[in-house]
Structures are given as C-alpha cells and as structure tokens.
Amino acid sequence: MWLCYKPIMAAFLSNRPALAFFRFHLSVGIRIAIRTLAPVVALIFALYYIFRIEFFVLLAQALLIDSGNLVYALLFSAVSLGTAGIAAPRICLGLTGWIRHLPLSSQTNRRLAGLAVFAALIPILIFLAVPHIVLLKNLEIPFTVYILGLPFLGLASALCVLPVERKRLTRPLAVAACLLSVWGKWPLLLAGVLAIVVCDLVSGPLLPVRKHPHFHRGLKGYLFYATISWRALKLRFLASYIFALLVIGASALFISNNSFNPRLSTKAVLFGGALSLAIVCAGTGSILASRRPSWPWARSLPWSARQRIVMDSLFLGVHALPVLILVAIMNLSAAAPLALSLPLLTLYTSLVIRRSSEYRMGVSGKIFLLGLPGSFLITLLPFISILYLASAPLALKYATKEERRQKVSRWLELHHLAAGDSLSWSKQ
Length: 428
Hints:
Blueprint: H1 2-14, H2 16-35, H3 38-66, H4 69-91, H5 106-138, H6 144-161, H7 167-181, H8 186-202, H9 213-233, H10 238-256, H11 262-291, H12 305-330, H13 332-354, H14 362-380, H15 384-390, H16 392-404
Helix pairs in contact: 2-5, 3-4, 3-5, 4-5, 4-6, 4-7, 5-6, 6-7, 6-8, 7-8, 10-11, 11-12, 11-13, 11-14, 12-13, 12-16, 13-14, 13-15, 13-16
C-alpha cells in the first residue's frame, strides 16, 4: 500500500505551495485545538477524575451490550461533530478571501481546511481512544474495529461542518459516515470509508461563511444591554431571592402542616409563587432604577424605545425564571398561570423604572401595590392569567410611550444625610 501512495506523497512534497499550505493549515488546526478545545479536554479529565473508571465501564457496558451499537455510535458522533462545529468557524474564517488568489486549487484548499479541522479533533479522538481500549478490554470485547474507526470519524466530522457548495448532499453522507465508522463492524466501517470518499468527491469548493447580520447584531445588542444591567446589579439581587424563597418555603410548610385537597394545595403554591415573582421583580427593578437609570448615551445606540423596554423585560424575566422553575417543581399546575402572567409583570416593572423619580414609595412599593392584589386575584381566579397575557401588548405600548417621553438631560440631585458630612451647616 505504501508503494502505491509513495509517488503521490512525493509529488505533494515536491510542490512547494501545497507544502506551505499544508503546514499553514496544520498549524491552524493545532492552535485551535490548544486554545479552543482546552476546556473540553479539562472537562474530560475532570469527569474521569470524579467518576473513576468503574462508572465508565458500566456506561460502556450499557451502551455496547444493553442498548446496542446504535446508541454508542450516536454518542461518539455527537461528541465529534460538536467539537468539529466549534473548530470549523474559526478555521474557515479567512479561507474565502485573499487566500483563494494564491496558487492552489479550490479542491485542495477545501481538503486542507478539512485537515485543519481534523487536526483540531486529534486531542478529542485520543481521549476517546485511550480510555476506550481500557473499557473494551475490561468487557472482553475486540477493540480493533472501534479504534480504527475513530480517525475516519474525525474525517467525516470535518467534512460535515465545512461550508461547501453541495452541503445538502454532503452533510447527510458525512453524518452517515460518522455513525458507520464507529458502529463496531468491519462491513459498516468499509461503508463509512466509502461514504467519506464520495462525500469528498461531491463536496465542491468552500463557500463564504454567510452570517445573518441582523440576527447577530440584535443578539450582540441584547447581550451588551444585559451586560450593562448586570454590572449595575452584581450580587445585590440575591436579597430579593432570599425573600422569595422565604415566601415559597412558607407556602410549602403551610401545605405540609395541613391536609388539603390537590386544588387547595395548588392555590397555596400559586399564591406563594405569584408573590415571590413580585418580590424578585420589585427588588431587581429597584436596583436598576437607582444604579442604571435612563441615560442619554443609550439613545445614541441603534435601539428603539420599544427595544429598550423589551430588553429590560427580558432581563427581568430571566431573573424571575428560577422562581418559576421552583414553583413548577413543587406543583406543575400552579406554574402555568404564573408563566402567563409574567410578561405583564416584567413590562410593568420596566414602566415603573422609567417613572421611578415620581414615586415616593419607590419602585418596589409601586410594584407591590400591583403585585399583592394581583397575587390574590390570580389565586382565586387562575384563568385571569389569560387576561394578564392579553394585556401585555398594551403595557408594552404604554411603557414605550413613557420611554420616548423621558427627559434624560434633567438634573437629578443626589441627597445625602447631614450626619457624617463635615461641611454640613447643621453640624457647624
């Protein structure tokens, strides 16, 4: 076999541009493996250190003997394809620009890009192979066909994630090749190799990576806005979680110390959950109103007033989500009305944040003024949560109008206590 490939390798090594490209793509793949996949390798080390070899022997026995080879092949293919999906965007970032003007064919450029992805997968393949040999030896299963299939699994994964011209045809073939390569049978392994060859022949050249600028721009905008809000909150919002957990705990004790039917138990959990959501929104909204009020610079960014209200509402909803999950664990029937009423509560909190300077009771007092009777109402009449959800667009419209009316250039004087101020006239 080496005699057949020796002329081909000699021709490749004598081609200086191809050799330079080979070294370039190989170094790119190794750098991606070192930088990007280091957390994956660390996670594998941690799993082997925590669960020990006995756990993985039992897992391999469950996959290979009890469940069959399909589950095993799906697991290994998912690990390889997920890792290749992490490495491919970084490797293919600049392969469709000026590099295409260099003296190299598009087919060779695509194959070398696949080689770079495969090089990035080498640490994962090694960590799949070495413990795999130990596990299969303990189970007394021949491991040669499994180990030989791992390199072809890496090649098929690299072909699957590359942005090629005929990806609708090549991706199903590449996924099938991944499964066949680690199925554990010689005929299926040969079929997987054949699928890789066919996939390589029909792939075509690399295509420019098409991004969705509006989606990514919007996603980055939301993340940026959430980062600003997080810097204002830090860990101060944990106090509202403590009070919310006390309310839910009181509801749980109330149910456990009394013999209620399921309907009354659901209502008790529903009232505790509604009040806890109001507490979380009141605490988080109060901090945002004092430490991240409306500021002029935010209006220079490409966000409309409606988008700012929606981003605040989503930010508050994410922080209220743990309470909703806890209520769902306690009683799933009580979580549905709370989920329907949560958009109105977060939109109302976003509105109150904009008008915080007008309330003597503060943001938290204003939210409790609505949240407490709302909690009683949704407990007595759970179907009213549908009306809460239906009125959310009206709340969004009113909050957007209030955001547009904000006079962000107004002077907000900071009031301090005279005690401790050496320059205060009352202390002279």
